[in-house]
Amino acid sequence: MVSSRLLLFLSAIFIFTAQAVAQPSFLYHFCLNGKGNYTANSTYEENLNHLLPSLSSNTEIDYGFYNSSYGQSSDQVHAIGLCRGDANPDVCRGCLNNATSLLKQRCPNQKEAIGWYDYCMLRYSNRSIFGVEETSPSFHMWNWNNVSANYVNQFNDDLRTLMDSLRSEAAAGGSRRKFAAKNATAPEFKTLYGLVQCTPDLSEQDCNDCLRGAIEGIPQCCDGKQGGRVVRPSCNIRFELYPFYNSTATASSPVAPPVSPPPPLTNTNTTKGSESNTSRTVIIIIVPIGAFVVLVISICIYFRVRRKPRVKIETDDEIRSVESLQFDFGTIKVATDNFSEENKLGQGGFGAVYKGRLFNGQVIAVKRLSTNSGQGDLEFKNEVLLVAKLQHRNLVRLLGFCLEGNERLLIYEFVPNTSLDHFLFDPIKRLHLDWQRRYKIIGGIAKGILYLHEDSRLRIIHRDLKASNILLDAEMNSKISDFGMARLFLLDQTQGNTSRIVGTYGYMAPEYAMHGQFSVKSDIFSFGVLVLEILSGQKNNCFRNGENVEDLLSYVWKNWREGTASNIVDPTISLGSTTEIMRCIHIALLCVQENVANRPTMASVVLMLNSYSITLVVPSEPAFFMHSNIDLETTSQWEQSIQVLESDERSKSNSVQASVNEASITELYPR
Which of 158, 209, 455, 464 is an active site residue? Predict the structure, then answer.
């Protein structure tokens, strides 16, 4: 009885531990709309539902590659599952099991889709994909840290040598496994670790070609970085300056030696024989199971330590554990010339922003939170924990942070062209924003928000999207910044409530400003306002129509109904596609509708911006706001925050904190 309970207890521990390391969200996934769609309860969906579970349930395959088809003619489904070469069969099947359920959720009616985890890849299609080299769709990721400037060339040479060696080794693999991983010496007495893999259905030449193309893509994505990966449907590569793979499993798995049976038990005391046998039997059962559980827990702890820091970190001690992102205060002090006024870029509500230069020549922007800001620590932790998890070309990149005494510093990449508002609302600088650039900026913002809402590992609501929080790099690419107000959502969560309203009036969705209800649709509303500002070149709460000043949304809606929407377009836009401009006005009006349910998702917005074959629905009346009664002529150019108490009974206990329009809670201004 005791041993049975113990077995149940240990089994529960094993199940709990296995669930703890489950991977809930893809690194990246694609739903290929151009490859055709299927309808609910169709034969294709039935075949897909039959095929996908059969991949991960196939226990006869222990080498990590699954390929199968099911159905007939146009309803036939083809699927491929590939696990990383160092993943054991249980981890592999568990990963594929997660992928089969999640990919269908993310791509509910696309006939072709693909998703990647760290340990596996799953793809399916209505066409034959076995033995076909596929190079797209693809994605890349990179390590935040840079190689020392003095050693970049040597590092690149060592990396190329290692990758070419791994490519040849993997391509020469058999029909079950085309995988290679090993390390090499890197500059500054460091070790460089590399991993490459092809789907083993490829020929040696196709695998070679696929990996060569991925390796040649390293300079475009990860030049000078300490780590990176390029991922394609048929192959993938990765390199780091730390061991990220299981080196004991990189070689072909040897056949396990037979387990010798225990020696026969000899009873010398017939009176105590039964008790002795029972004790020995319990020991024989408990010891192996206990050792197995300890081994599983140790492996789980190892991989949890090697992974990036978890999202929910509540104390300074836990933040300090993110050592790879932490800068020494003395280093930043030197980089900013002791935070000199000459290097000061701007002043925010929670501190100043300085320009700096590290020892390796890299230019940085340093946000120094004021020591007397009671909310500064919260915003600081929020930005570190959220932004550090995000990697996208349309998001400003957090390089690290610093904690020393009362000092709280955030170190960002330096974005040379300041923020969008400095171009958009300046009568001279706005001439640099022709329609082509404005359209590119709108598309970049949309892609950045889509990544936050759907494509990142987390679901993040920004809550303070506005022109001053959109930075522009040297090529005028838009980068969303300032995540101090952002909120993390569970993947299946659709709405949240708060009694602390933060953000900027004019950009706030009505349900958020009045009731504290926020969701992805709150960001959609802010995006719509921002698009109208980009189109008109004027601020949303002080739109000037001749000598009259009125609300931008009201003015746009009035002209839309009267068929004169072109009146709102910035007159400095002399050349540009009228179709694109009118379509952007239409999309913006869909985003600012008062009814939350009527606003599109950001995935739909991106699709509408890029496809003219989609017919846009007629928008309903937008939500109108009374803008702040603060005299705009006397408002300081720097950060301001105000306290507002709503008059209704609901809000008597809820203080509402907001920043005046044209300012930010944590301004990175100017750049």
Answer: 464
